[in-house]
Design brief:
The chain has about 140 residues and is mainly α. The protein has helices at about 5-15, 20-40, 50-70, 75-85, 85-105, 110-140. It is built from 6 helices and no strands.
């Protein structure tokens, strides 16, 4: 398989996750974080940046890890994701990196490069967690 085809399959494998549940979890976490900021009086220009970042992280975490653990969806995509756990986690980590960077940059007081470097940590954590879950699942099957 060529590099282009491999990237396309990785993006297609990312669609296997429970994205409705992930949306609900992200909304609850983001709403709770915003409520805590409002109640504790942390009023500032970037009051939305933190909760949006948390919501995005948990959205992608539940969607990606849930996709690794589900047994539904296209059998060929699941098999490819099981064989390539780190590659199949890259689209979600990349999307989190980009969306979190823009959220911090547009909603917060960060500059573009500060927002990018701040977003590297949650994207890296997501990549590691999803990759390890996929690797453990693949190891248990063999």
């Amino acid at each position: 398989m060529s590099g282009r085809e491999s990237r396309q399959v990785a993006v297609a494998a990312a669609t296997l996750g429970p994205w409705r549940t992930a949306t609900a979890v992200g909304a609850v976490v983001g709403g709770a974080a915003l409520a805590v900021d409002v109640v504790t009086g942390h009023w500032s220009m970037d009051i939305l940046a933190g909760p949006v970042g948390l919501a995005l992280f948990f959205f992608f975490l539940v969607g990606t890890v849930g996709g690794r653990l589900r047994a539904t969806g296209d059998r060929r995509l699941r098999r490819w994701a099981d064989e390539h756990p780190w590659q199949s986690a890259l689209p979600a980590a990349g999307a989190l990196l980009v969306l979190n960077t823009f959220a911090l940059w547009l909603l917060g007081s960060w500059g573009l490069f500060g927002a990018l470097f701040t977003s590297l940590l949650p994207a890296g954590v997501l990549l590691v967690v999803a990759g390890v879950v996929g690797s453990v699942k693949a190891a248990r099957r063999s």
